[in-house]
Amino acid sequence: MTTPSHPARPSFEQKAPPARRAAFLLDFDGTLVDIAPTPDSVRVEPGLIDTLLHLKEVCGGALAIVTGRPIAQIDHFLPGVATAIAGEHGLTLRRHPGIPEEPVTATPLPEEWLDQARMLVASTPNTAIEHKKAGLVLHYRGNPDAEHSFRTAIETWLAGQDQFEIHPSKMAWEIRLAGIHKGKAVEALMTQSPFAGRVPVFVGDDVTDMDGIRAARAMGGYGYLIPDDFPTGHDFRTWLARYGENA
């Protein structure tokens, strides 16, 4: 008689501090959810919200989402997971659930750039624009041939000024205020309770997450990048659920 085999455990075993000392600061798209054709079409895996709620409990509330999205979108996709959120790469910050996000005192995006971006997307099939409080993103996942023309357009708009920068992302180009990045968001979150004094664990999947990874490591913590350290976002979520169960 053949004994049924059990599914193999994932081969990756990344390090993390004990839950009593850990602070998790996690990217959203590509990390907690898989990348989707459009920002509005992401799908939250069954069980993810329970995983995050349990993780928050075992880590004493030291859980934050550090994302390029506005804060309201994270609340929409993760209902009931009341937690700290750094939105728009740290431009907006809600340090604790239940309190307002800190006011943005940033230079607004010039209206002419936004108008031109809308016209560009309207004339380019299968692309999309994402407008933020002080920036925008041009998505070309549905039309990879638009990569060069989108970049050229943004570089033309940004020429001769130093307040805004162009940043690459996965199948997208972003206009963002200069000096705004996830590393500063991680540093800001780690200064206050319940994060202060804990060991940061930052996980992301994109070039925009590298600043967060570097910041976490500079504070003596852990910074992981998908797929370098976890093969896929699903593998990371599996690891995260197991961490919470074993805490």
Task: Provide the structure class.
Answer: alpha/beta
Order of helices and strands: EHEHEEHEEHEEHEHEH
CATH architectural name of the largest domain: 3-Layer(aba) Sandwich
- What's the name of the CATH homologous superfamily of the largest domain? HAD superfamily/HAD-like
Fold-level CATH name of the largest domain: Rossmann fold
Low-confidence runs: 1-10
Please state the CA-atom Rg, rounded to the nearest Å: 19 Å
The count of helical stretches stands at 7
Keywords, please?
four-stranded antiparallel beta sheet; Alpha-Beta Plaits; 2 domains; alpha/beta; six-stranded mixed beta sheet; 247 residues; Rossmann fold
Question: Care to describe what's here?
Answer:
- With 247 residues, the chain is an alpha/beta fold.
- The chain has two domains: 152 residues, HAD superfamily/HAD-like (Rossmann fold); 67 residues, Alpha-Beta Plaits (2-Layer Sandwich), CATH 3.30.70.1020.
- A six-stranded mixed β-sheet has the order 4-3-2-1-9-10, with helices on both faces.
- It is globular, with a radius of gyration of 19 Å.
- The chain starts with 21 loop residues before the first strand and ends with a helix.
Task: Produce the secondary structure layout.
Elements: E1 22-26, H1 48-58, E2 63-66, H2 71-77, E3 84-87, E4 92-94, H3 111-122, E5 128-132, E6 135-139, H4 147-158, E7 164-169, E8 172-177, H5 182-189, E9 199-204, H6 210-218, E10 222-225, H7 233-246
Helix pairs in contact: 1-7, 5-6
